[in-house]
Amino acid sequence: MSPDYRPMWKGLGLDLEAHDALLGVLGPLYEQTFTKQHNRPAGMAYFDFVMSEVHGLRIKELMDAKEAGRKVVGTYCTYVPEEIVLALDGVMVGLCAGAEFATAEAEKFLPRNTCALIKGAFGFALARVCPYLTASDVVVGENTCDGKKKGYEIFKDLVPRLYVMDLPQTKSPAGRALMRDEFKKFAAYLEELTGRKLTIEAFKKGIAMVNAKRAVMHRLAKLRAADPAPISGLDGLLMNQIYFYDDPARFTQSVNKICDELEQRIARREGVAPKGTPRILISGCPMAVPNWKLPSIIEKTGAIIVGEESCVGERGTQALTADTGRTVDELLDAVVDRYLKIDCAIFTPNESRVEHVLQMARSLNAQGVIHYGLLFCSPYQVEAGPVERRLEKEGLPTLRIDTDYGQEDVGQIQTRVEAFVERLRG
Ligand code: SF4
Ligand code: SF4
């Protein structure tokens, strides 16, 4: 039985009643979505445990780290360089909210036509239900899409310390220079916050830790190419979500363990669905915990998701950072080069994204792509059209689903996904 975390939550300023309500929804939703899946790998028990303690033990670990003098850095975007945070002995945690909470309150600050991710982040802060947010010594906002950029101007009054990082919108030399300058400023800010110096040794250690975490996700992705699929898309997504919360070394070790198990499954030609099950790649907006709506619908129709072209997925983990620099400046250049490769739709042009989707679909043996756009997310919803046309031209059937966190459209999405899966079955 878990210890009583209520004093810790209270100390973190949570509204205990509202927090109970959140956990009361999250627990059963998790049970219903994950634990009843067919033939799950035994190693997923670790991730079940992490989820059962996501507001408990992991928060206690963060509090212990703070007690030991480490700083907790909360983030909303995959452009925040974790290498630098780890190099300065910080702990980085993802804060993105994948559920509706206190929407009416959030809409007092934001227009109704704001994407669910931003509204969720505001709702979680206003309702005081996120211990990651209140445990953070600093929250990093990044000027990516307009919703976030303008939202942070308001959000700064809702959290004790918000650091806003500017980001370029093009990958031109000027764009690169801006990113480098911003990363440098961020490093200096963290040096001051942590009282530590960004040395070459520490920087290399930070790079190695994040690279290891990314490399294990690459290993997992390769194994998901097998038919029959050795693991469900829901479990694949779950690991990509926990990537943002867990201790990096422990996470790497746990995913490696699952990969060992998956290799054995593949050798035995064993899977979570029969060979020949329609295979789908998801592409689009990030799906933060507990946003499992669309993947649940897809896998309930009898298809299998084999990969996620998403920030909570391969867009976020795709490239490693070179560690060959001989000075802090050279290592910083390597970090900038790596982050500049992320093909978020806030960049223009963003042609490399569709190439990445195609490459993923081919290497994962996907027969179709479901493009997931959050309603009111202009960057991804606008980009969905050209992406769809290009994929269809390349012979990859594509379905565009635009939705939010609500349940009202579940039946309608189900019908469209079923028809799409029929198309894939030929
Ligand atoms: S979609 Fe773009 S803005 Fe959103 S987390 Fe990913 S990189 Fe950041
Ligand atoms: S989903 Fe779209 S609109 Fe929402 S925060 Fe991400 S990029 Fe911005």
Describe the overall structure.
The structure is a single chain. The protein has 426 residues and is an alpha/beta fold. The protein is 54% helix and 10% strand. It has 19 helices and 8 strands. The chain has helices at 6-11, 16-35, 44-52, 57-67, 82-87, 103-106, 116-127, 131-135, 146-155, 173-194, 200-223, 233-242, 248-267, 293-300, 314-317, 328-340, 351-363, 378-393, 410-425; strands at 72-75, 91-94, 138-143, 162-166, 279-284, 304-309, 368-374, 398-403. A 4-stranded parallel beta sheet has the order 2-1-3-4, with helices on both faces. It has a 4-stranded parallel beta sheet with strand order 6-5-7-8, with helices on both faces. α14 (293-300) links the parallel β5 (279-284) and β6. The longest helix is centred in the middle third of the chain and has 24 residues, at 200-223. One iron/sulfur cluster (SF4) is lined by residues 77-79, 144-145, 286, 311, 342, 344, 346.
Strand arrangement within the widest β-sheet reads: 2-1-3-4
The end-to-end span amounts to: 50 Å
- Gyration radius (Cα, Å) is 21 Å
Low-confidence stretches: none
Proportion of residues in extended strands: 5-15%
Quaternary organization? single chain
SS content category: alpha/beta
Mean pLDDT across all residues, rounded? 97
Helix content percent band = 40-55%
The hetero compounds bound to this protein are: iron/sulfur cluster
